[in-house]
């Protein structure tokens, strides 16, 4: 049991005489009622009828206004009061006060299932919040942030936590308006609605927020200057209809529950999509400073600095700060004595230093911290006059090669190469600082890719902008770092690719290859173009030079030479370079900024694909996105370059995005449909194939592709239907008792209307392919799901519980519908037949738009939400359920469950779609027969022999039908890769 700071448990179910006496002081004094017993007697006899609240944690007036059906039942005598209803049954699913939302709290504390609450001694989510969540500074509503409340309220009750304190501080007629959250501005509200100020002063409301959340005309009031009910309703007719149907109190409720996560516009002049993609905004939200993009916008009045321009103008200052930080670190580095002693090195590092002792020590410390394995460090003292002459005093294990004068980077590196003992050699500038895992990532690239001869990384200048993300050579011999002066997290800088060359500030090369090439060519002494020449000679030997963005290096650019001297040497050596590499240069593009995307990679004859999806297809999203992710992965495995482009800007974190895709995928996370036309035109002639995922996107893309026809000449268009959707929608309407406005034939014709622009069409199964063929589409190929059977998964006796695994994207989705049907129609039939401890686990991504509150009232239900690794989840369960009542294509979860050795109970619809044999590959039941579905679960759960038989048959299906080899071969045939 949990208690408040005072040690006394907060109980929302009791009558609080002390509070009641203060709350209704006027009427009680008039009637001369005193004493706890008399007060409670008055409440029971008269207070209920007067809609009095029994304690500060339940608002009787608001409860009956918010839930008119309950008010009607109270009026008819079914319940003594709203409080009586809440205590008896409403506590499971209703909100007790205008300042707490059960839905909000559960979405932020998804592990608080009824079983968990009961085990911890809490009656419901509200009980947990009052006695535990509030003490932990959690929020129970959009409209109450404990930190903001405590910052803005002058009346503190030290022994009470924020929300409990707030409930005691609310007093009718109080004109002090403390701000409770960023979602509501009380000062603006009272200035905008002076009538409310009058009502507040007369005691009708306890605060401006109370009026906003409890008034009888909720669509007539805006909560702040950033949201407009009129605008939101006019541009979102779906919301307007939902409000009229009673699904939402007003537009702002929809905006808070769904609109913010969908980045809808709250008013005419506010574009949350653009605002969200400012890196500062994303970082603030990721760090928990703000709950979402809207609160950030409100707190900053929509003003955030232009990060790019600010950083561009800060380089002189940032360099001074960097030098100062190196100086500050120096005393610590001198005392700790860096140690590079080794036995057998994993790599050798060559550093050439001409003075810059402080910066060189910083580089050496960075090197030692970055990689703890044995390494040989060769430092070339190129005529230094500072403390580098005595660097052995401060660093153990260095191999120092000294020259009396400054021989430069090139000759110094060649002299050190003769001493190299490691299998890989890293050229590292002494004005560089390595970011975490840089060396490990470079070594992994060379060790895992035998065809890669050298690898370089993302060089970031001291001002936080790119020096280069790989480098480009043009036909005239000029060179430039790709994406110079751009932000390091720009999508184009964050995928692995073959490049002409990488800077010698960090360049790791196979030692055997370096020795074969005799290091840097002395033609370029003392410096510049030597690493460019070396990389081109590496290409000539048949090896690849790779840019890897996971290797990040801070580089104090021009720290080892003046910019003017660097420019003069570059000009001289460019002529030498052009003469030596005419053959290579003839294959390169003429210099033109419009060709930079094509020039950024040097891989020849590579098929380039623009893959367009609704959202970035992260695997955890499910709903067909897992299949799209598999297709992208196998396109890359087939040697293609893939650019992944979303119709809707993603709201996932960059960590989630980049973890979801192969490192050679170019993921455009900062643009959407509105930018697509400009994007395609900026890459005219670049793509060989455009792959459009989902048929409905052909409708969105048709006008764009026509406008870009000249930029896409000879580009093949492939539409992957993913699933033919019309039969699913037709079935959904019929199930809901809604008469479809069109025939299924008309719906299919409308769905297929823009497939004319597709050179090829992809279907997920033969059923969909045949349906497309019946509408005269002869260019159809079938590409299903990719799975590998796990024959070593746990067996029947080692598994328990029932599993549903699938993403829940919106309340109308097939998965949400199937769960509602199962929990309300099937699960009660299992109650007395399953062992007491058997539970239903619901696992997978849950959109903020989905409300699972009703499902979670069942004590057998546990919701895990999204998990990083589904294998342990599959391995723990004995039966997989797929109670889908309407669907299209083939649910990925069926193949995934079967591959993990988990037998399935599904509806006949899914069995037909997947093409498996009922009672042999899975058990099936009709959606109209809940009892049959329950019986199938019991049979599979209890019959070991039946379980083993279906387990083996399903695994064999996966082995035959879903192999990686067939998958890649089919993709190659579709996109015509030889």
From TrEMBL:
The residues forming the signal peptide are none
Q: Does the keyword Metal-binding apply?
A: no
Keyword entries, A-Z: Transferase
Metal-binding listed as a keyword: no
Highest taxon of source: Bacteria
Molecular function GO labels: transferase activity
Matches recorded under InterPro entries: Glyco_trans_2-like, Nucleotide-diphossugar_trans
Q: Which residues form the Glycosyltransferase 2-like domain?
A: 348-468
The entry's protein name is Glycosyl transferase
Which species expresses this protein natively? Answer: Acetobacter pomorum
